[in-house]
Amino acid sequence: MSRREPAARVAVVTGSDSGIGRATAVRLARQGMDVGITWHRDRAGAEGTAAEVRALGRRAALARMDLTLLPDAADVVDRLAEELGRLDVLVNNAGVGVVTPFVDLTLETVREVVDVDLVGPLLCGQRAARRMIRQGDGGRIVNVTSVHEHQPRVGAAPYCAAKGGLGLLTQVMALELAEHGITVNAVAPGEIATPMTGQEDIDVRTEHRPGVPVGRPGDAREVAAVIAFLCGPDASYVTGASWSVDGGMLRMGPQAGSHLRDDSWRRP
Fold this sequence. Notes:
Number of strands: 9
Order of helices and strands: EHEHEHEHEHEEEHEH
Helix content: 25-40%
Oligomer: single chain
CATH architecture: 3-Layer(aba) Sandwich
CATH superfamily: NAD(P)-binding Rossmann-like Domain
Structural class: alpha/beta
Number of domains: 1
Radius of gyration: 18 Å
CATH class: Alpha Beta
Strand content: 15-25%
Shape: globular
């Protein structure tokens, strides 16, 4: 009798129609995982991600997810897991930003950003963790935060509040889920060439960023590589940490402050 092949590991990557999410889905597929892909507005982008995953010999399942429609949006995690047969990895990547002075923020804007960037990942993380616990063989959850998990930015009050909250949520999740063999980490990107920063499909090596030690923005694939490490077997003893992928940007805080020559930073 031939031995039955073990089931492929399954990952769900939210917001994987472009940018960091797309790069992560493809990277995890390259590591042998089947991938659940979510999209909000760009279905064609999600189908492009799925085509890349399938070209690597892995299965892909797609679903629309609107994290402003909570709690129902979190059902997507369960639906994709059911379609693909299990769930081993959740990457909470979907997010939204805002550039609005603090005194001009509306409650509607604040709630949208906090729902998408904090409450949504919390509920999706619950769905994933419950399923992983039932499966009984552990799992990986990675929350994509931002350098603004750690440092503020003028004009981004709800974004910074949500990402800072997601960073601490990551630590609580790590403590509570460790006994089940589930690790939980955050990845905190700096300026990455994605649609969110208006730099999709550029060659980051041609861009100059004097305020970033490595001198350029990051490529989405560089963030995906760190996420993939945290989702793999070599990171089995890593949990509750926030991994900055920012070209050294966070290390520039005090030095940047002492080198500013005008008040332009006061305006978004």
